[in-house]
Amino acid sequence: MHLAKIGIVNPIWSRKLPSEPSSVTVTKDCANRYFLSFVVELQPIQVEAKNPSIGIDLGIKTFAVMSNGDQAESPSYKKLDRKVRKLQRKLARQPKDSRRRNVTRIRIAKLHNQIADTRKDFLHKFSTKIVNENQVIVLEDLNVSGMVKNRKLSRAISQQGWYEFRTLCEAKSEKFGREFKVISRWEPTSQVCADCGFKWGKIDLSIRSVLCLSCGTLADRDENAARNIEMVGMGHRHDLKCTVRQSKTMKGSISR
Ligand SMILES: [Zn+2]
What we know:
Number of domains: 3
Bound molecules: zinc ion
Structural class: alpha+beta
Largest sheet: 5 strands, mixed
Radius of gyration: 24 Å
Strand order of the largest sheet: 7-6-5-8-9
Distance between the termini: 80 Å
Mean pLDDT: 85
């Protein structure tokens, strides 16, 4: 390939260009890698969604739990993280302006890139799948900045990429003619039974499954939350009084 002012380059293609590009941008990152980005014109392909709607609960241990019970695990960065920390300790010991220090610096930058690439790849693939399969996508608005202030959680949260995931879902929803919704983080999605609407109140994060005292359903905490997120997003709210009364009659009929 020939680029003006640069000459012949032989890039590694991440994918085939779908049409003739109208421009190209060359960038270099701190690990000395060069990137070419092309601007191409595309006609969006409209695919009909398999499901009418989905609610997604984002978490730290499991990246996402969906209202249909599916789960998505994020890739593990533990090994790479350990390598980074080891190199950072090494860097701290090396004299400033030394050649070896510079080598360490580039190795750290490369590892950071590797982590970022792995995460980006996962978030792209997962958001594409979600948007392809569902007509309405509902997420919960998370107080990410507030949570990142908690130092224990901050590393895990920034690594998960919740915000990037949301941005990707939103952009892809627009591209594929889907509806993207975010519900308020004040909705008590983990305090209410998704089956009967009974409010059991705040439960500790360590509790992973809840047995509803009103309807007797044993629900996974995150799946229950995801189902509530979907319901709130779709505008179906539990009428508390009504459902409690109904579940009481149900119980009565079972005992009889
Ligand atoms: Zn219930």
